[in-house]
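[step 3/7] inverse_fold.run input=structure_tokens len=493
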């Protein structure tokens, strides 16, 4: 099942394999240089994750039907309005739990689906949950107003001020709406990542504030012993998973690894490379192409999370990331000194060798999206997985002088492990947008076939900004690349 060797064989210093690694990865240590073990991945995990989602939805609908949902719907009038309101509220609560679960970093979910897919699913589930909540509020309020012969405004005020837990639920709903509004792309672009991330954490508080109303007065939550057990268990399980995988596991990992910065070096215009080492790297399970969430303990600002992909194949001699420093918090990172402590969460992401199933390797990246692709190329050499010729790297660059990690690419090329094709120039404003202006007249599928002649026999990894990655991945599939052979990840938050 796992195409990547799990044994950590020493890499001999005279081999071409070792020569593809950067100096900060090989270091000056006299201890053997070992590849780190990749995390476990099982193919059936993806199906299991989907089964969990549909099972919860079916249970919720079954509990609604058992409590007379269909009969009330057929009765019409206020009963039908209340029935629709109850069902939409139940589905909204279930989707809210699934939304929180999707970002709980549960290993089998995260490794099987990958962050890109999870993030899209998280957004879709979140917006759907909010709209269902709005439907729940409107239909329940109108239904009760008809039963009480009140106007809708008076009924809404009465429910908020007199029903047990409703004030808390109203505050929770306001927080969830705030999180939803700030997650819209137009709003997100105006926020720093750190600010948006902090606001996003209020979703947990919003879900918690809504809980008393649901469990104290929700008729479908209290309709039967089975309903009560299901909802309490669902909330308890999700809460436990969040605490374990978002708090306890990262704290334990950071305490175990005790990573410290060993060097901070320029890596091209507006970018630096940060190398790290710790005494127990041999115990860390991570694959090339994955990312960690780093917190650099530099004093003020240390709590800010930085999701960064490894830019070199991980070994017992160190980890390395390459990041832009022109944006949020970049100046603080660029001024870090050797010895700075580092806290980590992870590894995350599905852009790794474990998903490979084909003999040849193609890497397509733009900007700093090349970082994990360089690590993947190095790992392919170290694992001896380039038996069918060198990997093909296609780089999208604004100019020929701004290529990140050029020294790493040169080492791989000199070792005969990499063939490089550069797409240089400003973005095409007509035609195919992911190509430079001078090639924009080419249809995307034709450009893909010209660039990647071995579509049918290659695993293709794509990384860069969101729109660029989505456009390239779509054209790859349209050109005939099998869906399961296209592995895409974007770093646009």
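[step 3/7] decode complete -> sequence:
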């Amino acid at each position: 099942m796992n195409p990547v060797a799990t044994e950590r064989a020493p890499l001999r210093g005279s081999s071409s394999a070792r020569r593809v690694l950067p100096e900060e990865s090989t270091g000056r240590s006299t201890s053997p240089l070992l590849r780190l073990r990749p995390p476990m991945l099982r193919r059936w995990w993806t199906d299991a994750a989907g089964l969990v989602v549909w099972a919860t939805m079916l249970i919720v609908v079954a509990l609604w039907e058992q409590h007379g949902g269909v009969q009330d719907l057929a009765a019409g009038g206020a009963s039908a309005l209340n029935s629709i309101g109850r069902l939409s509220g139940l589905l909204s609560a279930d989707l809210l739990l699934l939304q929180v679960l999707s970002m709980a970093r549960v290993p089998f979910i995260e490794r099987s689906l990958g962050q890109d897919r999870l993030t899209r699913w998280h957004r879709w589930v979140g917006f759907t949950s909010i709209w269902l909540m709005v439907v729940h509020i409107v239909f329940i309020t109108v239904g009760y107003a008809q039963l009480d012969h009140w106007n809708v405004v008076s009924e809404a005020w009465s429910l908020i001020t007199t029903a047990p837990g409703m004030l808390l639920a109203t505050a929770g709903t306001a927080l969830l709406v705030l999180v939803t509004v700030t997650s819209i792309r137009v709003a997100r672009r105006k926020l720093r990542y750190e600010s948006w991330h902090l606001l996003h954490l209020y979703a947990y508080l919003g879900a918690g504030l809504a809980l008393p109303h649901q469990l104290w007065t929700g008729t479908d939550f209290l309709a039967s012993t089975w309903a009560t057990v299901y909802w309490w268990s669902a909330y308890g399980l999700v809460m436990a998973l969040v605490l374990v995988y978002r708090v306890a596991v990262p704290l334990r990992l950071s305490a175990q690894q005790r990573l410290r910065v060993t060097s901070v070096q320029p890596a091209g215009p507006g970018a630096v490379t940060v190398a790290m080492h710790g005494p127990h790297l041999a115990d860390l399970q991570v694959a090339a192409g994955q990312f960690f969430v780093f917190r650099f303990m530099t004093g003020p600002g240390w709590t800010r999370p930085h999701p960064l992909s490894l830019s070199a194949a991980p070994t017992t001699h160190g980890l390395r990331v390459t990041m832009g420093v022109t944006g949020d918090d970049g100046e603080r990172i660029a001024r870090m000194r050797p010895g700075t402590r580092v806290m980590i969460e992870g590894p995350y992401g599905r852009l790794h060798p474990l998903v490979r199933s084909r003999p040849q390797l193609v890497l397509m990246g733009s900007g700093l999206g090349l970082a994990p692709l360089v690590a993947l190329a190095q790992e392919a050499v170290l694992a001896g997985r380039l038996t069918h010729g060198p990997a093909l790297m296609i780089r999208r660059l604004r100019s020929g002088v701004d290529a990140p990690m050029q020294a790493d690419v040169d080492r791989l090329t000199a070792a005969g492990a990499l063939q490089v094709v550069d797409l240089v120039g400003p973005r095409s404003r007509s035609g195919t947008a992911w190509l430079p202006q001078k090639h924009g007249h080419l249809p995307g599928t034709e450009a893909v076939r010209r660039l990647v002649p071995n579509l049918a026999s290659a695993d293709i990894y794509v990384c860069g900004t969101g729109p660029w990655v989505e456009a390239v991945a779509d054209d790859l599939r349209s050109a005939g690349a099998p869906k399961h052979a296209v592995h895409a990840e974007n770093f646009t938050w």
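[step 4/7] annotate
The radius of gyration is 26 Å.
Confidence is low (pLDDT under 50) at residues 1-10.
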